[in-house]
Structures are given as C-alpha cells and as structure tokens.
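During the second year of the project, the team shifted from modelling isolated chains to modelling whole assemblies. The rationale, set out in the original proposal, was that interfaces cannot be judged from single-chain predictions alone. As a representative example for this report, we include one of the complexes processed in the last quarter. Its constituent sequences, exactly as entered into the pipeline, are reproduced here:
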Amino acid sequence: MEKKRTAKGDILLIAGIAAAGIIIAAAVLLFSPHGSEVVVRVDGTEKHRLPLTVDTRMVINGRGGSNTLVISSGEAWIEDADCPDGLCIKTGRISRRGQSIICLPHRVTVEIDEGSGGNNHSSSADIDVVAG
Amino acid sequence: MQGKTMISLLLASVILVFSGCSAADGNNTDVTGSKHEKEIFAMDTIMKLTAWGASGEQALEEAEAEIRRLDDLLSTGKSTSEVSAINRSGGSTQLSDEVRFLAERSLDIYEATDGAFDMTIYPIMKLWGFTGDDPACPSDDSIERTLALCGSDKVKLDNSGMVLSEGQSIDLGGIAKGYTGMRIADIFRKNGIGSGIVSLGGNVQCIGGNPSGKDFNCAVADPAAPHSSYLGFLKVNDEAVVTSGGYERYFEDDGVTYHHIMDPRTGRPAKSGLSSVTVVCRDGTTADGLSTACFVMGAEKSAELWRSGSYSFELVLFTDDGRLLVTEGLSERFSPDGDRGFEIIRKE
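Output from the structure prediction step:
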C-alpha cells in the first residue's frame, strides 16, 4: 500500500516536472529575441558574426580605412569612421532583421541576420528586403 | 535509489524537451533549401543577391559575371564602355542590342512622362558634380547654358544608329539597375531558383516569393531615416520594387539641401512636393525609370500617369508634408508602419 502510493506520487511529480520543462522550453522559444546576429562583411566577404545580445565594441578594417562598430542593448551602430562621407555613422542604430549599415567607401556592410538559431516568428518586423 | 531514479528521469525529461526544440529549429532552416548570398560592389552601389535552392552558388556566380558585364557596357564612368564611346563620338552606327533596347526604353518613358525622365540629363548631373565626389552649386548661367543642350527629343535613334545633337551626352543609369535586376532574375530562373531576392542599392527585384511560401515582405524606407525607419511594408511576388528619394545622394550648401534627382525642365533638383516615390511593377526596367519620373512629376501627375494605363504599375508616394498615398492595386498588400495612416489613389 505504502509503496504503491509513493510510486503514484513519483509519477505525478515526474509528470509535473516534465510539464514545467515543456512550459519553460516554450517560453524560451516564444519570448527569446530572434537569435539575431550582426553580420559584418568587407568587400562581400563575411568577417564577423556577432550575437546582437552581447554588448561589443570593435574596429572593422575596411578597404582604405576603418569603422568602429558598437553593439549595445540589442542595437548595432557605427560610432566612428574615417570614410569621407560618414554616411555609416549617420545611418544610426539598427536592430531589426534585414536592416543594414553600409559604408560604400570602405566596402563595409553591417547587417542584422536571423542567426543560426533562427526561428519562424513572422511579423511585420521580419523584413526580407528594403527598397529605398 | 528512488531519489536517483527520479533525478535521472527529471534530467532525461528536460534534455528531451530541449533537444526537441533545437531539432525543430534545425528543420525550419532546411525545409526550403539552402540559402545563398552574395554582396557585390558595382554600378557605384552595393548589391545584395540572395538565392534559395541547390544551384544557388552557380546562379550567384553567373549573376555576378552578368553584373560586371553590364557595368562595363553601360557605365559613364568607364572610358571603355559603349556608352562612353557614344558620348565621345556624339553617337554610334554600331549599337549593341542592349544599348539600343535601353535607349529605346528611355525615349519611351521620356515621351510618356513629358520629359520628366531624360537620359540626356547627364551634362547637368556633371555640372552639379553628382558624377564625382564633390558636388556643388553651379551658377544660374551655367545651368541655363547646359540645359539648352539637353533633351531626348534632340536624339536621333533609328536603324542606322544613334546620333546625339551637339554637346549632348547620355546616361542609361536611370534604368540600368532595373534592367540588371531583370537579367539576374532570368539567370536565377534558368538555374531553377524559384525563390530569390536582389537588391541593387535599394532597387529591388524579387524572384517568386519567400521560400516559406508567403510573399516577400519588402519594407519601404522612410526618407527621414532611410536605414532604420520605414513608411510601410509591401507584400511582393515576382516583381520589382524601386524607390527614388532625394535622401539617396545630396549635399548641403549654406543651409540648403540639394539632392541628385534633377528636373530636366529646370536643370535643378526636382521640387515636386514628394520626398519619396516607390514603384511596384513586373518590369524592373520600367519601374526604375518611372520612379525617377514620378519623383520629378509630383503626386498629381504621377496619379494621372497611373490612371492613363500607359504602363502597368503601382505607386507608394510620400509627400513633403508627410502624407502617404498608395494606388488602389496595392491597398490590400500595403501595411503602413506603426500608426501611420494612408490615402488610396483610385482609378475613379
């Protein structure tokens, strides 16, 4: 009698833990940021792939000059650059998939990509391409 | 013993749940075929090519070769291009099929838009310095003198070739990117790519729709912050989307902003009350030419051209005073960003 009750309790407990596990996993999937990555390319070649969730500051060595990339609080931007037009700095902050910063003189691009752990969340925030 | 069993069961269940998640993630990226991307610097801009499918790499390589070939053929900045040769000699008796095709299309749009799109505006672009690195305001006098030479109506194009009038030079750059996008789309299709997207400096051509089975979601840049803010989103499939705005290239002088889209009637930056024009069209070459023309013509004349049916296209217009206008054909496919409202242009 005593043994049986314990076994029943165990099953309930395990079921409870499993259910909790599923709920946690679902929450992680649903509410985590998109696993976005910041992709840095120079002259078309991928040089760095950085998580958007980890604050970073780095110097990108482009063609004939450099650009300082900052990633902070889920946003990426070029803080400083020695290119003639400075358009990459003027572009401001990007955070949504499909957005990019371009430094034409240095042939540097910084783009938000869905990342290797990308999921299927589809909303107006998921942009395939920007016309403009 | 019981405690240990319970702990291992607990661990097992957690591991199972999480491994299940990552497997699902892996599947999501694989079902539709692999994604291939390439960035190319050409035609004074950056081009981004994306192809989904097994032959993606092959398609991208062929597309890059095609872009280089067209750049070499059409560039006004390369002395060896056919266009440069035409400008040096004031014409040509041996036009290539492609240059002839693009010149004919340019003349066609010139006529349909009452001269708002003009391939002979090149000397004016040069005068303003927009072909180089250091644009600046020319004198009124020099503008008038240069403008007198311009005008596609002075160009002779027939079976024997092209003849420019004295002092004229042409630039096919106003439709070259649109045409290039279409050529890339052909290359993708030939390689069995059913889903692809090409952005030639913000000049978009899509092949099919998103590999997920939906249409592509194409954002339209907000002229106030073109890289981080949007006017809205367009659902597109097998179409070109081309946006023209004064924010793409400009300089400031004495507190005044001068942009690069010239009004062929004034020889000065167009002031039509529009800050951005987006054209959606099956034909990328047409989309490219019309976006410039509509920017120069303004909202009312653009709507007239759309109603006339001379070309089959749709429009998203954004005015200097912040009104968003969308032609009827896009009303179901356009969603404005945030709480922006928009007005629908109807055929009546």
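Chain B touches chain A through 53 residues (CB under 8 Å). The CA atoms of residues 214 and 237 of chain B lie 9 Å apart.
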